[in-house]
Automatic annotation (TrEMBL):
It comes from the Bacteria. Its EC number is 2.7.7.60. The record marks 159, 221 as: Positions MEP for the nucleophilic attack. HAMAP family: IspD. Pathway: Isoprenoid biosynthesis; isopentenyl diphosphate biosynthesis via DXP pathway; isopentenyl diphosphate from 1-deoxy-D-xylulose 5-phosphate: step 2/6. Belongs to the IspD/TarI cytidylyltransferase family. IspD subfamily. The record marks 17, 24 as: Transition state stabilizer. The keyword Magnesium does not apply. Keywords: Isoprene biosynthesis, Nucleotidyltransferase, Transferase. It comes from Actinomadura luzonensis. This is 2-C-methyl-D-erythritol 4-phosphate cytidylyltransferase. It catalyses: 2-C-methyl-D-erythritol 4-phosphate + CTP + H(+) = 4-CDP-2-C-methyl-D-erythritol + diphosphate. GO terms for molecular function: nucleotidyltransferase activity. PANTHER family: 2-C-METHYL-D-ERYTHRITOL 4-PHOSPHATE CYTIDYLYLTRANSFERASE, CHLOROPLASTIC (PTHR32125). The gene is ispD.
Length: 241
């Protein structure tokens, strides 16, 4: 029998880099909030049984309104997010309890996620315990090094080996829970946090291979003000296609 699959929408951030009064997931793009675009993708995915939303403190009532008005029946919980992305993930794991399931942790601010990626992630979790979504880098990437007048180009990395992580990042619940329990027990974790959930698994459960599913250039993370315009354009192009 297939496992229950839970989509976790991480929407607990404040959107400091976008710099608006509202968290960016509550900003409207192409006629609806970014949060609602992401909700719609998970609600419409036949592989997803349940959705848990992590929302910025002070905005859970708005999230509930969006969920109720949009009729997103798979949403089982709206939980307050933590002070960092990893804290929000941990809160989501606590809200899920201990019964084994597949967990797909998604940045709510990636509203252009394609259903194909969810399908492939859920399929991959039948044979793998951890799955990431990634794309190759089309830019050359190097390590910046301190130089005489500021930063200079340090080591140029082998681009053929480089990938850019996206979301959803997907795990058996027992795996991601164990990784987080070890991270939270490590006094050094707070001072050197991971920038994504795969980073937590890689550091604390290195014996678990993280299988890769191909992401998409469209699956952008709305991070800076220009990304709102890019997302709008991508939705427009999709509607015209
Ligand atoms: N405490 C946090 C911080 C981030 N996130 C979520 O993680 C995703 C990726 O984070 P990011 O793009 O960094 O969002 P913000 O933290 O809101 O942005 P910023 O860093 O510019 O403040 C977003 O969907 C965001 O809402 C979260 O659930 N809880
Ligand atoms: C999880 C992530 O989207 C993978 O690329 C990224 O690490 C999130 O970074 P952010 O600084 O929290 O936006």
């Amino acid at each position: 029998m297939d496992s229950r699959s839970v989509g976790v929408l991480l929407a607990g951030g404040v959107g400091q880099r976008v710099g608006l009064a509202l968290p960016k997931q509550l900003v409207e793009v192409a006629g609806r909030t970014i949060l609602e675009h992401s909700l719609a993708v998970f609600e419409g995915a036949p592989e997803i049984d349940e959705i848990v939303v992590l929302m910025t403190p002070g905005h859970t009532a708005r999230a509930r309104e969006i969920v109720e008005r949009g009729g997103y029946r798979k949403v089982s919980k709206i939980v307050e997010g933590g002070a960092s992305r990893t804290e929000s993930t941990w809160r989501a794991l606590q809200a899920l309890g201990t019964e084994e399931c597949d967990v797909l942790l998604h940045d709510a601010v990636r509203p252009l996620l394609e259903p194909r990626i969810i399908t492939e992630c859920v399929a991959a979790l039948r044979t793998h315990r951890a799955v990431n979504v990634a794309i190759p880098s089309s830019d050359t990437v190097f390590v910046a090094a301190p130089g005489p007048g500021g930063e200079v180009v340090g080591e140029v990395l082998d681009r053929a080996l480089l990938r850019r992580s996206q979301t959803p990042q997907c795990f058996k619940l027992s795996v991601i829970r164990e990784a987080y329990e070890r991270a939270l027990a490590d006094p050094e974790f707070a001072g050197r946090p991971a920038t994504d959930d795969c980073g937590v698994v890689l550091r604390y459960l290195p014996e678990v291979p993280i299988h890769l599913v191909a992401g998409s250039e469209r699956n952008i993370k709305v991070t800076h003000p220009a990304d709102l315009r890019i997302a709008e354009l991508l939705f427009k192009l999709a509607a015209e296609a």
